[in-house]
Structures are given as structure tokens and as C-alpha cells.
């Protein structure tokens, strides 16, 4: 019998520890108890420290606003072991993630962190570390999280459910356990990051072109990079990045660099980080070494009107049925978490697209409450999780009144739950098959948790 109808295929603690913001955990890491640290779990070359467990427990207790039970502590440790097992097997199976993805995720989370504390300077003062040092501290756990997610995806990505699977799943739920759903909505969004004004971009391009002339006139690229580059990581080394493999740097940078001959200098190249003046130093097989000067346009001069105009044109196309909202989101939205889902926001509890009204983002609650199904708002100002200025349009796809779960009204939701249950079982089977293929050593202190007994997932 299925008794936990509303849970996703991962346990609450698994999802928390595999997908939580590393920004939050990093903040907790600064407040760790002063107990003696040490290794409590080994999974091949992967380790879990006592302080890792303490940090995760502290975060969970902060969210629950109370002390958690011993069994919940065991579940948290179990979730940490899950992630380490996924990472250990990924190493054996040669499953990796691109450095570009790691750096992009790091930048996003650091941006969020900065937005929460106020500025990069305040962040550095709080931790008594440079931004680069903080990112270096987070790089390994971010990479591990992404690898674990990729392994999990590879284990479950081919799974699907049929109408018969959904019906069978529903019929397994005891009648007296059928949940009663409050009012739920499906909400879509298309986000466009506000762009720096053309005047600002042209000014930066012209500054880089002037530097290029100075270098061609005999000045040192390295000295100019040291003096002017806004990439703190490479400026002190004369802009040199060292040998990189393909796909380790953002596509715009790599494409421009690989067109150059050694010693040649590019035109200004725009990327998500700003504008680069690039010099190819050397190519060695599939690797290449470059130096660059990075300049960033003045981000205080944001062209919100141009961003709104772009969204208004897109909104008009959707309303005239020349493109669907889902397709428009996938093609044009700058919000990665929702664009691949056709723009739909996710219910944080079960990862479905059906969101109870009490879980709707307070910033749009009253907007949604007054909308008719099918309506799309005019562009609204918005600030992303990592603190970037943006605008978005909001779409109310559906609104379901309170009711008890049934196949007719809740088929899509039930299909999601049935698929999640199938994925949970696949992960559990995978663990049973693979837990003996790696070395796992757990401190006897945690024998009562029975971490390796029964279903881990």
C-alpha cells in the first residue's frame, strides 16, 4: 500500500540535501558547534565529516523551528550517504559535469548570497575572505551536488508511466487516505534579465578597442590586464587563465579564442560576465591558454524600458496565438529553473506544477488572485534569486477549486506522483545493486541508524 501519497520520489531529507541552496548551508557552516570534528562516513574516496552532519541538522532545525527527533537525524545522515554513493559511483562510471556548469551554478548562488547580504564587500568582510576564496570553498560541494543530480537523472530519465500505471497507483491509495486538495493554481512565467543600456556597452567596447591599439603599439597586454581587468582571479596574473580544455569556458569566449593565432588579439567579445579582450598565448592539442582583460558595463544604468518592450512583443504574439506560452518560455525566458518546464513554476513540496494558494510567492499572490484563467499580465519588475534586475510576465494556466483527489480532475498530478514513485523504486533498486560495489564505512556511533539496511531512497 502507498501511504505517503503526497511525497515525491525522493524523501524530504534527500531532496533537501541534494537540491538545497549551498548559500544557506555555507552560512550555517560559519555557526557550527565547537565540537571536535572528524570523519564519520567514508564512501570510497568520499567522506562525511561530523561538522557536515551538524550543519545539515542545524539547517533542518532552523526550518522546522524546533529540535528534530533522533530518527530524523538518521534520515539526514542517510541522505548525505546517498549523495556520496552517487558521487562515488559517478567517479567509477566516468560521469562528470562540465566546468562551465559548475562555474555557472557557483556564480548564480554567489549572486544570491551577495543579494542577501547587500554587497560583495560586505560578504568578504563577514567571512574575512575574498569572493574568490569563498567560491573556492563552495566549488567542491557544488560539483558534488551537480554530479549526484546527473547520476540520479541517468538512473531515472528513461522511466515513464501509462494511464494504467496511474490508475493502479490511485487505486492503491486507501479511500480514507485520499488527500483533500485546497485551491491550487498552475502559474507560468517568462523572465527577461534587464540589459545594460547600449550606450554603456558601446563605452566598454570602445575602452577595450583603445587598449587593443595600445598593445599593438607596444604596451604589455599583461600589464594592462593587471591594471584594468575586472576579473580579480586573473588580473593579478596578467589576465592569464592557464590551459583550458574545450567547453570549460563560456561559449562566446572559447569560440573567439580558438579563431586566433598565438599572439593575436580578438575584437571585444561579449559574454554573461561582461566584455573580453582576448589574446591566444598557446594551443597544445585540445587545450589552449589565453589571457584576457574583462570590463563590465555600469550595471546601474539598466534599460528597463527595452526589456519591457521585448516582453510586450512576446506577450502580443502569445495572445494572438502565433506562439504558445510554453514554447515562448522555452525559447526566450532567462529563468533556467522554469524555462525547461514551459515556464511553469514548481510546487516546492512535491515538485509538481500544481501550487496551493498558500505556497504562491507572496509577491504575486494578489496578482494571481484577481486573474482569470488564461490571462497574462503586462511586464512586471522582478529581481531574480541571485539579485539581478529583470522583468517578467505571469500566466495563470489553471485554477482548481478545493476537492478530494480523483482521477478525472487530478490525472496529471497523479501521473507525477506515480512517476515519482517509480523513480523512487528505481533509485532504491540501484542502491541495493551498487552499495556493495563501493567501500562504505560508517562510524559505530551511528549503528542505531541502520543506514545500509532496507531502502536507502
From TrEMBL:
<keyword id="KW-0697">Rotamase</keyword>
<dbReference type="InterPro" id="IPR023058">
    <property type="entry name" value="PPIase_PpiC_CS"/>
</dbReference>
<dbReference type="Pfam" id="PF00639">
    <property type="entry name" value="Rotamase"/>
</dbReference>
<dbReference type="InterPro" id="IPR027304">
    <property type="entry name" value="Trigger_fact/SurA_dom_sf"/>
</dbReference>
<feature type="domain" description="PpiC">
    <location>
        <begin position="285"/>
        <end position="381"/>
    </location>
</feature>
<dbReference type="InterPro" id="IPR046357">
    <property type="entry name" value="PPIase_dom_sf"/>
</dbReference>
<protein>
    <submittedName>
        <fullName>Peptidylprolyl isomerase</fullName>
    </submittedName>
</protein>
<feature type="domain" description="PpiC">
    <location>
        <begin position="182"/>
        <end position="282"/>
    </location>
</feature>
<keyword id="KW-0732">Signal</keyword>
<dbReference type="InterPro" id="IPR000297">
    <property type="entry name" value="PPIase_PpiC"/>
</dbReference>
<dbReference type="GO" id="GO:0003755">
    <property type="term" value="F:peptidyl-prolyl cis-trans isomerase activity"/>
</dbReference>
<keyword id="KW-0413">Isomerase</keyword>
<feature type="signal peptide">
    <location>
        <begin position="1"/>
        <end position="29"/>
    </location>
</feature>
<dbReference type="InterPro" id="IPR050280">
    <property type="entry name" value="OMP_Chaperone_SurA"/>
</dbReference>
Amino acid at each position: 500500500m502507498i501511504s505517503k501519497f503526497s511525497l515525491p520520489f525522493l524523501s524530504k531529507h534527500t531532496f533537501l540535501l541534494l537540491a538545497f541552496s549551498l548559500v544557506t548551508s555555507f552560512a550555517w557552516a560559519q555557526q557550527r558547534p565547537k565540537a571536535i570534528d572528524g570523519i564519520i562516513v567514508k564512501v570510497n574516496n568520499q567522506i562525511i565529516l561530523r561538522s557536515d552532519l551538524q550543519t545539515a541538522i542545524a539547517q533542518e532545525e532552523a526550518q522546522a523551528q524546533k529540535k528534530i527527533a533522533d530518527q530524523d537525524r538518521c534520515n539526514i545522515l542517510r541522505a548525505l550517504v546517498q549523495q556520496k554513493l552517487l558521487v562515488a559511483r559517478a567517479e567509477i562510471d566516468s560521469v562528470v559535469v562540465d566546468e562551465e556548469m559548475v562555474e555557472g551554478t557557483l556564480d548564480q548562488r554567489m549572486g544570491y548570497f551577495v543579494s542577501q547580504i547587500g554587497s560583495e564587500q560586505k560578504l568578504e568582510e563577514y567571512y574575512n575572505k575574498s569572493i574568490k576564496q569563498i567560491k573556492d570553498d563552495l566549488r567542491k560541494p557544488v560539483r558534488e551536488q551537480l554530479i549526484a543530480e546527473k547520476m540520479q537523472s541517468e538512473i531515472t530519465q528513461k522511466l515513464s508511466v501509462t494511464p494504467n500505471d496511474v490508475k493502479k497507483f490511485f487505486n492503491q491509495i486507501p479511500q480514507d487516505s485520499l488527500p483533500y486538495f485546497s485551491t491550487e493554481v498552475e502559474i507560468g512565467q517568462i523572465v527577461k534579465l534587464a540589459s545594460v543600456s547600449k550606450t554603456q556597452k558601446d563605452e566598454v567596447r570602445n575602452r577595450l578597442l583603445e587598449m587593443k591599439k595600445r598593445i599593438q603599439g607596444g604596451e604589455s597586454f599583461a600589464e594592462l590586464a593587471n591594471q584594468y581587468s575586472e576579473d580579480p582571479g586573473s588580473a593579478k596574473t596578467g589576465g592569464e587563465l592557464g590551459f583550458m580544455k574545450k567547453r570549460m569556458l563560456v561559449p562566446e569566449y572559447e569560440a573567439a579564442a580558438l579563431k586566433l593565432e598565438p599572439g593575436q588579439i580578438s575584437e571585444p567579445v561579449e559574454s554573461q560576465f561582461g566584455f573580453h579582450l582576448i589574446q591566444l598565448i598557446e594551443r597544445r592539442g585540445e587545450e589552449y591558454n589565453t589571457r584576457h582583460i574583462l570590463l563590465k558595463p555600469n550595471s546601474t544604468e539598466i534599460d528597463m524600458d527595452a526589456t519591457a518592450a521585448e516582453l510586450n512583443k512576446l506577450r502580443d504574439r502569445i495572445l494572438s496565438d502565433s506562439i504558445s506560452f510554453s514554447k515562448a518560455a522555452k525559447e526566450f525566458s532567462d529563468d533556467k529553473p522554469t524555462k525547461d518546464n514551459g515556464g511553469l513554476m514548481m510546487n516546492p513540496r512535491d515538485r509538481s506544477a500544481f501550487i496551493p494558494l498558500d505556497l504562491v510567492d507572496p509577491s504575486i499572490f494578489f496578482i494571481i488572485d484577481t486573474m482569470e484563467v488564461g490571462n497574462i499580465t503586462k511586464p512586471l519588475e522582478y529581481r531574480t534569486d541571485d539579485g539581478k534586475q529583470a522583468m517578467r510576465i505571469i500566466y495563470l494556466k489553471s485554477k482548481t477549486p478545493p476537492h478530494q483527489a480523483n482521477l478525472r480532475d487530478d490525472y496529471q498530478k497523479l501521473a507525477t506522483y506515480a512517476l515519482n514513485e517509480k523513480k523512487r523504486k528505481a533509485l532504491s533498486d540501484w542502491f541495493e545493486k551498487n552499495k556493495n560495489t563501493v567501500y562504505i564505512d560508517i562510524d559505530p556511533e551511528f549503528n542505531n541508524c541502520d543506514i545500509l539496511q532496507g531502502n536507502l531512497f
